């Protein structure tokens, strides 16, 4: 069993930055692909970014490419999402998730993720 707890969300003005963290407990964190997803009110869950078990592969949604950076520290069982140049359309609840699959095809697919955090709210004002 893996438990995930996100933090770092908040209210920020457009153009600002936030850094989200996701601390995991349980075994084998370093063996999981880790991903970030977001869901805005009235919209479907959307893939944001994912990172392979050793940080060697990263994948981003086109909407955040060049603005967001995903990273991980396996010694701390933590995955991060650095968000720069935030826009009002980035407003959503952001969740981290753990994916036992290694193929990059699986990164954007919510169904491949076995464990999910509760999420942290990010609100970007214009």
Describe this structure in words.
It is globular and about 40 Å long. Strands 2, 4, 5, 6, 9, 10 and 11 form a seven-stranded mixed beta sheet that branches. A four-stranded antiparallel beta sheet has the order 1-3-8-7, with no helix packed on it. It is built from no helices and eleven strands. It has 126 residues and is mainly β. Strand 7 and strand 8 form a beta hairpin. 0% of the residues lie in helices and 48% in strands.
Q: Can you give me a brief rundown of this structure?
A:
The protein is mostly beta strands. Helices cover 0% and strands 48% of the residues.
Shape: globular
Please write the string of helix (H) and strand (E) elements: EEEEEEEEEEE
Low-confidence spans: none
Structural class label: mainly beta
Helix content: under 10%
Query: How large is the share of residues in beta strands?
Result: over 45%
pLDDT averaged residue by residue: 95
What is the distance, rounded to the nearest whole angstrom, between the alpha carbons of the first and last residues?
40 Å
What's the total count of β strands?
11
What is Rg?
13 Å
By DSSP (H or I, 4+ residues per run), the number of helices equals 0
Q: Largest sheet, described in full?
A: 7 strands, mixed
């Amino acid at each position: 069993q893996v438990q995930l707890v996100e933090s770092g969300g908040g209210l920020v003005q457009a153009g600002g930055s936030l850094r989200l963290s996701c601390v995991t407990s349980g075994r084998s964190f370093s063996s999981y692909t880790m991903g970030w997803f977001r869901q805005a009110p009235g919209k479907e869950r959307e893939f944001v970014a994912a990172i392979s078990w050793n940080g060697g592969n990263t994948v981003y949604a086109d909407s955040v490419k060049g603005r967001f950076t995903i990273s991980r520290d396996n010694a701390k069982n933590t995955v991060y999402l650095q968000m720069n140049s935030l826009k009002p359309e980035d407003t959503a609840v952001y969740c981290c998730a753990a994916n036992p699959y290694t193929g990059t095809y699986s990164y954007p697919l919510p169904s491949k993720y076995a464990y999910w955090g509760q999420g942290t709210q990010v609100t970007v004002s214009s």
